[in-house]
Amino acid sequence: MNGQVQQRVLTNGNAEKHLNNNVTKPSVRGQWGRAWNVDYKTLLGAMFVLFVCPLMPLLMHTACGSYECSISSMVLDVWTHTPPFVLPSVSMYAVKAYFVWMGLQLLLSVLPDIFHHLVPRYTGGMQSGAVTPSGRINHYNINGLQAWLICHVIWFLNVHWLKLFKPSIVFDHVTEFMIIANIAGYSLATFVYIKGRCFPTHENDCKSSGNILYDYLMGVEFNPRIGDWFDFKLFFNGRPGIVAWTIINLSFRRPPTRDPRSRDRLHGSPQH
User: Which residues cross the membrane (predicted)?
Assistant: First the structure.
């Protein structure tokens, strides 16, 4: 350690010195922006986000695909059970495809970035983040553009030569992927909540309101991590979904020829 210091101005206006080893004396615990106390309005909002929002895309998709975009017809179908309302199923093919995609993103996230050597003014490679409430500076491997390009090269190679999967894979299994993503999202949130309460990466970067539902939604840890390099926020916010955005568009651009009145794809019948 060479003794260099950085200045950080805390929210109360006081300055604190930090040594360049990225570990400093802890500041006041929980100095980051969200409610300490949760009123009933905030709790109702948290419950809406947790229990209603995840279902809305699935219901809208089902209404558009099976009920000619009539929400009232879908609700009536569910209410009267005439004809019987069939819940979508999930095929093993879709589950495997989802985990292959997640594994690929995990692999690409740890590769060294070369784009910042090739693209002028592109900020990539190992970068330092902002100072956390406990006075730490986390480091990040910024290689999202590289991961995006590799995935799309694989996509186009598959379309024209490899033929490992249909270009319409997302279109064919969109309802299944929505269900899997919701299950994975709740599982991830549960794990991160338990981690923040029981074995946080840095205890002084944790904050709890005392309300389980609110803390479950907003998070307990400021930067939940495993080890020094796997950052939950960076990976899950910036990789599986963001990188897939354009691939989803490409998949929907190449749908198979199918009777638009058919409910097969909405009820999980595998088409591959």
Answer: 42-60, 98-119, 140-157, 177-194
H or E element at residue 232? helix 232-238
Angle at 214 between CA 209 and CA 220, to 5 degrees: 60
Task: Give the model's confidence band at 7: pLDDT under 50 very low, under 70 low, under 90 confident, else very high.
Answer: very low
pLDDT tens-digit profile of 135-158? 899 999 999 999 999 999 999 999
Cβ–Cβ < 8 Å for 112, 2: no
Q: Half-sphere exposure of residue 13, counting CA atoms within 13 Å on the CB side? A: 0
Annotated domain spans of the chain: 87-267
Give the chain's largest Cα–Cα span: 75
Residue matched to tokens 């009933």: 40
CB 193 within 8 Å of CB 46: no
Angle CA 127–219–26, to nearest 5: 60
Angle between helices 240-253 and 92-109 (to 10 degrees): 130
From CA 229, how far away is CA 112, in angstroms rounded? 12
Q: Is the dihedral of CA 247, 249, 250, 251 positive or negative?
A: positive
- Give the position of tokens 């009777």: 259
Spatial distance between the Cα atoms of 136 and 131, rounded to a whole number of angstroms: 5
The 10s digit of each residue's pLDDT in 68-86 is: 899 998 888 888 876 555 6
Per DSSP, what are the bridge partners of residue 127?
140
